[in-house]
User: Fold this.
Amino acid sequence: MRQWLINPEFLCRKHLMGEHIESHMFLGCIKKEISLKGYIEKGLVEIHNIKKRHDELADEMKRRNYNHKTPMENLDLPIIGFVNSEQNISELKKRCSDCRKRIERIIDGYNNNISSS
Assistant:
């Protein structure tokens, strides 16, 4: 389980859906009082951002016309954990050719828009 915490547009379908379900898994662990210490120590989760991130992923799912039927309740969670998003972009580009293509296409498009302005 992990939070990539990168722009959801960068994620291929597999990683978008995976991070979404893992948001629910993280919250389930918290509610069952299962320790997430290892995930926190390895920089894989920001406890305080689980709901916010879930909602960002759900918005992207809806934008792509995927079904989203699992809203997440709002819990007051402590500020715990740090995920390095820049490092995760590099890691995801190495792991997944579909994500790499999405990232490069979106970043190239953004850079082209800036240079033509």
